[in-house]
Amino acid sequence: MPDSIVDLTLITVSDCCATLQEGLPPGRIRDSNRAMLLAAVADAHCLAVDCGVIRDDLATTRSAISAALESVDVLLTSGGVRCVWLLLEFWCCFV
Question: Are 34 and 53 in contact (CB under 8 A)?
Fold first, then answer.
């Protein structure tokens, strides 16, 4: 496999996603997007840092996004609506 062409961080934001390794309690859904996205990233010969599933609250999401943007070329988020607003907030700081 060639060296990675892009370093990428994947963050899934959700209070209702269960990982593929844990059981599926009532009221939760499988985190199938993360597995699919990680496979697609690997197939594109990119290095993915998987941050797993983080809580869908403003402070946790802001902290995870800030940390990720310090060290990667691409930040890929899946899940929570708050991500959209936080990414817009970060983007506005660079414009």
Answer: yes
CATH number at residue 71: 3.40.980.10
Q: Do the domain assignments include residue 1?
A: no
- For the beta sheet containing 7-13, the strands, ordered from the edge strand earlier in sequence to the opposite edge, are 47-54, 7-13, 74-79
| Collapsed DSSP state (helix, strand, coil) of residue 74 | strand
List, for residues 54-91, the tens digit of each pLDDT value.
888 778 888 888 888 888 888 888 876 666 666 666 66
* Residue 24 belongs to domain spanning: 7-94
CB of 51 closer than 8 Å to CB of 79: no
The three-class DSSP label of residue 90 is helix
Domain count, the chain: 1
Give, in degrees to the nearest 5, the angle at Cα 22 between 19 and 52: 30
Question: How is the chain split among helix, strand and coil, in percent rounded to 5?
Answer: 40, 25, 35
